[in-house]
Specification:
The chain is about 25% helix and about 15% strand. By secondary structure, the protein is of the alpha/beta class. The protein starts with about 40 loop residues before the first strand and ends with a helix.
């Protein structure tokens, strides 16, 4: 869904295999439900289009319409037919973003605050992909699928809400470009009301100062210090990192900010040069193996950990809550989302979604975490 600038990067505990190019990390931050439900709700899909059009109306009333007006009316009718066609498909309970075959016709996307709170209100969610069973692009169809999408689909149907997923870059939800952690902040997409919420983001102190969050739909992950495989036991004392150089993955919540907040770690007042950010997991692995850093500080579920040696306890301190919907503080999404999410978690449908995380007939060979690592109550 990323922990980076992504909502949620979670990968399997043991079965993760780094791709041939060695990179399992999105440089910036998931399947259709096997059982059809009959909740009376409408769902549409689209890729976010940044162009907001001005509506053009043809003549009406007593005025006699000319040829141009007839063309405009025909276009409006055709657009409505296309829209109702989408809704008809969505009523079958499938919500997805078709990236490969997206519409090329610009869509009118009003700002969230401009949409009245009625039964016809369409709630929009930004979604990304990072080749993980939480959020990924299915190679054959070009659709974004995964656990996070299954949850949005089910919650919207239970709440009888019309919803749409918009594919967008993670930095438009939370901006964290560059090494300076103090320059992190809200992304232009969420601040600019391009959508109601961003899907699957862990809650941190820094993010909570800018945005609000729904209740978690996935567990939070803990962090670990890891060293080069074969390092003698006790050679690295994670409780005292004075003078040590630590490698981090850029955009992840296991960052300098988190390390400095750990009360169980001495020497966490990291000076310049003692923290090095890397763009990919392969870069991070190489840095450990060639001695560029003494240890790395990463999520407990990253695939790169299978090539490193654990050097600490599992540390809880980088996130306040698990993966949630991140939204503007003036958005009312949580008022209906939280009750519907709780109803989903208590249902057999949620168990089906979670079991799907480990079912190759649903997600194929896409890597990702186990149901135990992700699902609430598992």
């Amino acid at each position: 869904m990323s922990e980076t600038n992504q909502p949620a990067l979670m990968v399997p505990e043991v079965d993760m295999i780094l791709p041939k190019n060695g990179d399992t990390t999105n440089t910036n931050k998931q399947g259709e439900n096997p059982t059809e439900r009959n909740y009376p709700s409408k769902v549409t899909f689209a890729k976010m289009n940044r162009v907001v059009e001005r509506r053009e109306y043809g003549c009406c009333g007593r005025e006699k319409c000319g040829g141009t007006a007839l063309v405009v009316v025909a276009l409006v009718v055709a657009s409505l037919a296309l829209l109702f066609g989408f809704i008809g498909v969505a009523n079958k309970g499938n919500i997805y973003v078709d990236v490969k075959n997206e519409m090329t016709v610009p869509q009118t996307v009003p700002a969230a605050a401009e949409i009245p709170e009625t039964t016809d209100r369409v709630w929009t969610f930004a979604i990304g992909d990072y080749s993980n069973r939480l959020e990924y692009v299915e190679p054959e169809s070009g659709q974004v699928k995964g656990y996070n999408i299954d949850v949005v689909n089910a919650v919207c149907r239970i709440a009888q809400k019309s919803c749409r997923l918009d594919w967008d870059d993670y930095n438009r939800c939370w901006e964290s470009i560059g090494d300076d952690i103090e320059k992190q902040g809200g992304g232009i997409g969420l601040l600019g009301r391009w959508y109601d919420a961003c899907t699957g983001w862990p809650v941190t102190y820094r993010r909570a100062r800018t945005f609000s969050f729904t209740e978690a739909h996935a567990k939070k992950h803990l962090a670990v210090f890891m060293v080069k495989s074969g390092t003698p036991e006790g050679a690295f004392n994670w409780r005292n990192i004075t003078g040590k150089t630590i490698g981090l993955l850029r955009y992840y919540i296991e960052d300098e900010d988190c390390i400095q907040s750990l009360t169980e770690v001495v020497g966490h007042d990291l000076t310049e040069g003692r923290v090095i950010n890397y763009l990919t997991q392969q870069d991070l692995l190489s840095a450990v193996n060639n001695g560029e850093v003494d240890a790395v500080f990463i999520s407990e579920f990253l695939g790169v950990k299978n090539n490193l040696q654990l050097a600490s306890d599992r540390i809880d301190g980088c996130s306040l809550q698990g993966y949630s919907m991140m939204m503007r503080k003036d958005n009312t999404l949580a008022t209906w989302w939280n009750p519907a999410l709780n109803a989903l978690i208590a249902s057999t449908e949620y168990r089906e979604i979670c079991n799907g995380l480990e079912d190759e007939s649903i997600h194929g060979s896409i890597p990702g975490p186990s149901a135990r690592a992700v699902c609430i109550g598992f």
